[in-house]
Amino acid sequence: VTLRSLNEAILRSAALIVPATERAEWFAEWRAELCYVNRDATAFCLGSFRDALWLRSNNPTPTNRALRLQSPVRCALSLAVMAALSMLLAFGLRPRVKSSPMPEEDLALAWIWVFVLSLLILSTVTPLKLGEYPANRYAPSVVIRLRRWLFLFLKVGLLVSIACFGCFALAQVAEPLAPATMFLGLHLGFRWALTDQRKRCPVCLRLLTNPISIGGASQAFLGWYGTELICTHGHGLLYVPGTSTSWCCTQRWQYLDPTWSSLRP
Amino acid sequence: VTHEAKLSHTAAMILHAIQAGHVYGFSVMETTGLPSGTVYPALRRLERDGLIRSQWESQTIADADQRPARKYYRITRSGKATLGSSQKRYPLLARLFSATTRENA
């Protein structure tokens, strides 16, 4: 009975990875098949994770998460909700346990040190450049360009809050893990903020869509190759090089002139 | 999917097994000796490419046998054509499965 429960638990855990629309049918198939397995049933059930991952990665419908984050307002709201939840968790856990043996000033200094360290390491392991945005006559106004930077700083601020409050909550239950988790959280958060910013239209700040591969690595000597993305509101195209070269070392944005305005919804 | 679509060795083996009458995921596993983590994702991929199609067996039959209903797989016309064209690439597989089918008969 215990082994059966374990196998059932493995299948249920794997089912969580499967997209919700296919989950019930997927689970029914695996459970029915399990009835016929008379040896190595656990190994059979562990294989369900690969199947579940395949279904998740080949899901034709876009994930809700991608839809939520496409608009800049939704992205900022999602991060704000996460920051609020981590803050509630941090303050909710606080009175139940003993206070930290470290003085609060030292704790704050340690956290600032982790913050600075994660920024320093970030600058060495990943390029900080957001790409090339030509300043031609089609470029947006200063206000719109400023809005783009404000959005980046807002994301970074919210991510720092999530990491800090999350680690504060973690420190209440497992203090030795908190500094390393905070460092990891900040580092991944900064990387995500930069990656997300690079994938957004500099005018409307929506995520760019319809990635198309152009050219091939074998033809890189005579031609450009990489990925082209488009803003669905017709503001421009983004060219992301497949390999960094002397003439194209970073992603390049191209503003579309008014003749493309028919594309705009 | 064109008939010239290239099949991997594993996919060809699974298609052969289904054509030979092993229509359930677990029976494909037993016939081919492949693990569940390989067989089931391959079945999904073959179904997505239109080479096989799945169907649930009747609940009445399953209830009569006091077991849960199983999902079975059938090879499509496109799957048969792809398998036929892959025989040049994997001649031993075709011979192996035809020999197994003869033995079972």
Topology (elements, then pairings):
The complex is a heterodimer of chains A (265) and B (105).
Chain A: H1 2-15, H2 20-34, H3 41-46, H4 48-57, H5 64-70, H6 72-93, H7 104-125, H8 142-173, H9 178-198, E1 209-214, E2 226-230, E3 236-241, E4 252-255
Antiparallel strand pairs in A: 1-2, 2-3, 3-4
Chain B: H1 9-19, H2 25-32, H3 36-48, E1 52-56, H4 59-64, E2 71-75, H5 77-86, H6 91-104
Antiparallel strand pairs in B: 1-2
Task: Please describe what this structure looks like.
The complex is a heterodimer of chains A (265) and B (105). Chain A has helices spanning 2-15, 20-34, 41-46, 48-57, 64-70, 72-93, 104-125, 142-173, 178-198; strands at 209-214, 226-230, 236-241, 252-255. With 265 residues, chain A is of the alpha+beta class. Chain A has a 4-stranded antiparallel sheet with strand order 1-2-3-4, with no helix packed on it. The longest helix of chain A has 32 residues, at 142-173. The radius of gyration of chain A is 24 Å and the shape is globular. Chain B has 105 residues and is mainly α.
